[in-house]
Amino acid sequence: MYDTSDIRKGLKVLMDGSPFTIVEFQFVKPGKGAAFTRTKFKNLLTGAVFERNIRSGEKLEPANVEDKEMQYLYKEGDDFVFMDPSSYEQTTVAAEIIGDDHDLMKDNITVQVLFFNERAVGVTLPNFVILRVTNTEQGAVGNTAAGNVTKPASLETGAVVQVPLFINVGDLLRIDTREKAYVERVKG
Amino acid sequence: MRGRVLWRDGESIGLRTRAGDVVVAPAGEARPGDLVATAAAGGDSAGDGEPPRVVRRWQGGDYPPAGSEVARLPRRRLEALARRAAVLREARRFFDDRDFAEVDVPVRVPAPGLEVHLDAIAAGGGEWLITSPEYQMKRLLAAGLDRIYALCRCSRGGEVGPHHQPEFTMLEWYRGWAGLDDVLRDTEELVAGVALAIARTTRLAYGGRALDLEPPWPRRPVADVMEEWAGVAIRGDEEPGALAERMRGAGIDVGSAVEWDDLFYAAFVSRVEPRLAGLERPLVLDQWPIALAALARPMGGQPEVVERFEAYAGGLELCNAFGELTCAAEQRRRFEADQARRGRDGRPVHAIDERLMAALAEGLPPSAGNALGVDRLVMLMTGANDIRDVVWFTADEL
Questions:
Q1: Cα–Cα distance between B212 and B209 in angstroms, integer?
Q2: CB contact under 8 A, B159 and A26
Q3: What is the pLDDT of residues B35-50, one digit of tens each?
Q4: Beta-carbon separation of B161 and A36 below 8 A
Q5: Are the Cβ atoms of B164 and A29 closer than 8 angstroms?
Q6: Quick check: B162 and A54 CB within 8 A?
Q7: Are residues B115 and B174 in the same domain?
Q8: Which residues of B touch A5 (CB under 8 A)?
Q9: Which of B187, B211, B191 is nearest to B279 (CA)?
Q10: Alpha-carbon dihedral of residues B356, B297, B98, B129, nearest 10 degrees?
């Protein structure tokens, strides 16, 4: 069990059966009174944030949470198969855990897989990935008068993003995975 | 060669420099108008093209990482510390002008404070660092000194936060033959006087808000504020289980608290303390329930509350004052209850300070005293929201 003196950013604790990480904390102590740590927790499953005052002396339960670096191997139906490069252990993760990122999953990409009680509950892509354009309208030279400065482009993994008009099929693009947005074109 | 002197190489920052002194500027910190020269002895070297000799390069950021070798302090901190020195000067002037004697109290004692929520730091040999100068100063009141003050370092284990350092500076004063109202007047006049001397106004800016320190300060019983802001009416004699239920009903998370005071503070910290930061005037909370009496005497006519006030300004807890308990028997009873509670909570059970008890038995005049956090006062005067900005050495700079 953790004491309030163990509280630090990133500490993983279990509350009401769900895993949380501590995102912020502050020591508060009225003069002659009990000491508290005002703590902000983020639910690792839902992302919801909430605050609690933990009195010194109260204990926090550690959460069996692990963030593992794994490599994406291939898709099996709707599921995604990852491999731990150190142990060669494979883990299958359902599409709904991957969520919206499923169409940014490039072969062999390295991701962080969050395990709670030995089960994969979340996958975090790196902030940026490089993906090739598989389909887009040929380099239009600006219909800017009509207000079009971007056009849609399909990427090798299935995602569709808005790109500048000079982007062509075969171009390599840096994509921000958090926004699922075009950042820049990169040299191949 | 003209310009603003930054540092004088090899000397303390407290010394004044004179025009023509040669200084060394940390690279990257020199700005147009600043005097930058080589560290060669004397002379105007700006003309001969020699670049400044950098003695140490500041790596950036407001606070050095723990363990790094640092000699220089950021300019903003130095400015705050200059104000700190002015606050101490004005505080001494305030008490000296009123014929108070400044006393020195021992730092290391065999019987430190018995407060149930304080952790004294062991000094070895069965002795402890003081958590406050209270016990020693009360003995001086019994010895016949009517007006005394102390500016001293106190230590409290495990207290580190935006308003807390494990070692801090306390300004504590006592008036024999006086009451709580006299000490409140002292407090208001002291704080307003310090503000006028340093900022030339009692209207400060703090925490993004105006803060008007003009006396007299608003004053409210703590039970009123608890009822209004926490939605819980308290008297002090409630059965803890029932109080916990009422608090949960009011939406307050009481955690695993079972003792009355833990419940009180759970509500205070979640509902009252956050709102204190939004006030544009100081707030004096008085008439504390007897369960939180410590060394304060019961109010005449209202024995369930004690003569105690706490003053808050800008959301900072500034001070804690008592009309002092002078009845030795009652004080011993309270100390014994504190010892029992500390034992239950797994804290060291310190001995009762028998010399203090003897002084109380010999007779203390009706007295009142206050313990004010000097670092907190300096935070108000400099606009700092973190105590580390206003102390010379933080705990992690050791």
A1: 10
A2: no
A3: 333 333 333 444 444 4
A4: no
A5: yes
A6: no
A7: yes
A8: 158
A9: B211
A10: 40
Q: Cβ contacts (< 8 Å) between B292 and chain A: which residues?
A: 32-33
Closest CA to B265 of A128, A155, A30: A30
CATH number at residue A14: 2.30.30.30
Of the candidates B161, B255, B320, the beta carbon closest to that of A32 is on B320
Nearest to B115 among A32, A57, A58 (CB): A32
Complex ipTM value = 0.77
What tens digit of pLDDT does each residue of B96-109 get?
999 999 999 999 99
Query: A39 to chain B: nearest residue by CA?
Result: B270
Task: Provide residues of B within 8 Å CB-CB of chain A.
Answer: 115, 117-118, 158-162, 164, 253, 255-257, 261-262, 264-266, 268-270, 273, 292, 294, 310, 317, 320, 345
Residue partners of A147: CB distance under 8 A and separation at least 6? none
The number of distinct structural domains making up chain A is: 3
Range of the domain at B82: 75-218+281-397
A2-25 pLDDT, tens per residue?
Answer: 999 899 998 999 999 999 999 999
Cα distance between residue B320 and residue B277, in whole Å:
17
Task: Clarify whether residues B32 and B86 are in a common domain.
Answer: no
Instruction: Check if the beta carbon of residue B288 is closer than 8 Å to that of residue B299.
Output: no
Distances (CA, A) of B306 to B45, B97, B126, B261: 69, 30, 33, 15
Asked if residue B255 belongs to a domain, the reply is: no
DSSP calls for A33-47: S--EEEEEEEETTT-
Q: Which residue of B has its CA nearest to A34?
A: B117
| Chain A residue nearest residue B318, CA to CA | A31
Q: Low-confidence residues of chain A, pLDDT below 70?
A: 139-148, 188
Q: Do A33 and B161 touch (CB under 8 A)?
A: no
Question: Does the beta-carbon distance from A53 to B269 stay under 8 Å?
Answer: yes
Half-sphere exposure of B62 (CA within 13 A, CB side): 8
A5 to chain B: closest CA residue: B158
B203 neighbors B212 (Cβ within 8 angstroms)? yes
Subunit contact A27:B255, Cβ cutoff 8 A: no
User: Domain range for residue A90?
Assistant: 66-124
CATH code of the domain in which A101 resides: 2.40.50.140
Does residue B260 sit within a domain? no
Residue type, B355: R
Q: Which of A124, A140, A161 is the last residue of a domain?
A: A124
- Please tell me what DSSP assigns to residue A145: G
Residue B232 resides in a domain: no
Same domain (yes/no): B192, B316: yes
Indicate whether B31 pLDDT > 60.
Answer: no
Helix/strand/coil percentages in chain A, nearest 5: 10, 55, 35
Contacts of B273 in chain A (CB under 8 A): 28, 30
